[in-house]
Amino acid sequence: MIHQIRGYSLAIGALLSALALPFPMLYPIAGILLWGFAISSFRLLAHRSLIQSMALIGVGLASLGFSLLEGAAVPLYPLINSNTQLLAMLAAVSFLSLIATPSKRSKKRALPVGKKGLISTLASGHFFSAIINVSALLIIAEKLNESRKIDTRAASMLTINFAMCALWSPFFAAMAYTLSLVPNMQMLAVMSVGAPMGLISLAMLYWLHRAPESKLTGYPLKGRNLVLPALLAVTVIIAHEVWPTIAITQIIAICAPLLVIIVLLYEGRTNQLHCHITNRLPNMHNEITLFLAAGVFAIGLSALFKVMPPWLPFTHYGPLEACLTLGCCLVAARLGVHVIMIMAVTAPLLLTLQPNPNLLAMTFLAAWGLGSAINPVSGTLLVMQGNYHINGSQIARANTLPIAALYAINCVALFIYSAFD
Fold first, then answer.
1. Rounded to an integer, what distance in angstroms lies between the CA atom of residue 377 and that of residue 385?
2. What's the per-residue H, E or C state across 85-115?
3. Of 268, 284, 330, 412, which alpha carbon lies 20 to 30 A from 228's?
């Protein structure tokens, strides 16, 4: 019963956050519901998530307390609504798994083999994951595991392929969180750099794995399951161009559930909505709590830096500084620091330089994507560890060299973007 209440509190909080676009008075109610979900989830948090959440909230409140002593105003409203639009989008996107997962008929089709199978696996994994996130990674890994063993090499290929979606997919938590940190970024401009990076990663992974995959089965690429989510992506992009004042997170939070409800009504599967709300949503406690904690941290640091400007090793933010920042973020990620914490710390510091918002957003998205592939305790690697008994540190080591190469390519992309911007 409590599990169901938590699921509905998250669903209703997300709905009210989306409806707050025409009715702003709903924002505090949405925030209270989301905080209620997080507080009721504290006993369920993974040990590391609990420590990181408490650290973020503790430092955020301490910074806020010092700024109040210096005469700053109390940001009560922002604290209640900490990252609520982002969380509404995350909850909304999770519903896409109800209409984007492969049908029973498609699961019975013969699997492609060799180079064709590798291309199919990489393309399916990348574009399928861009829509329904980690669910796609598990679906593809499980299908492959039926006919072959998921070893460290295969786990490395799948996790890098999945992580690179963060550089461009509007449905990833990475994009939502970056939008909350850098609200002035232009999503299409950022995607114009991130999407080619995704294609480059596909080519690199094909080159690295073509020999060991030459006689192994792959995952079948079927466009049918991606038609509706792809239509949603186009709708979101067009809507953002038509109504640029509406946050992209709110557009997705409104459009995604509407599309899912229409499809489920047409197919007579509306009972799955209740199952999703009571089973899938309550299990999002780790990411929901971390994002709320990161919001408190960012608000506290922003207030602190207004009364006590920080020291930084550079005075402006160009492509060189972006590359150095990204490198430091990746080192921290490799040491096991959660990417949300990394971004929460660096964003308030770098925003004091009034950087190009698109360049900063690209830095954060790359830090999320590349960092999650080499962080031994990232959600991506822990999912593979839990399901296929491959140590996260083992996968992180296997991913380090490919990610280093992608880091170098990404730095070149940042310089090229800055030259033509």
1. 10
2. HHHHHHHHHHCCHHHHCCCHHHHCCCCCEHH
3. 284
Question: For residue 389, how many C-alpha atoms fall within 13 Å in the half-sphere facing its CB?
Answer: 2
Token couple for 311: 């020291």
pLDDT tens for 191-225 read 999 999 999 999 999 999 999 888 788 888 766 55
pLDDT at 137 (0 to 100):
87
Count CB neighbours of 210 within 10 A. Answer: 13
Q: Which residue from 379, 405, 364 is spatially nearest to 167, judged by alpha carbons?
A: 364
Task: Please spell the DSSP secondary structure of 391-406, one letter per residue.
Answer: -HHHHHHHHHHHHHHH
Helix (H, G, I), strand (E, B) or coil at 217: strand
C-alpha triplet 293, 294, 297: angle, nearest 5°: 90
The tokens of 95 are what? Answer: 């519903």
113 CB-contact burial (10 Å; exposed 0-12 / middle 13-18 / buried 19+): middle
What does the alpha-carbon distance between residue 270 and residue 201 come to, in Å, rounded to a whole number?
Answer: 38
Beta bridge partners of 364: none
Instruction: Describe the chain by its helix, strand, coil percentages, rounded to 5.
Output: 80, 0, 20
Facing residues of 113 across strands?
217
DSSP alpha helices (H): ranges in 308-391?
319-334, 339-351, 357-374, 379-388
Q: Phi/psi of residue 317, each to 5°?
A: -125, 100
Count CA atoms closer than 13 A to 52's CA, side-chain side.
25
Residue of 34, 131, 43 whose CA lies nearest to 87: 34
Q: Running DSSP on this structure, what letter comes out for residue 311?
A: P
Residues with Cβ within 8 Å of residue 304, at least 6 apart in sequence: 63, 64, 66, 67
Confirm if 11 and 91 have CB atoms less than 8 A apart: yes
Task: Give pLDDT tens digits for 124-174.
Answer: 889 888 887 787 888 888 888 887 889 999 999 999 999 999 999 988 889
C-alpha 119: how far from its chain's center? Answer: 24
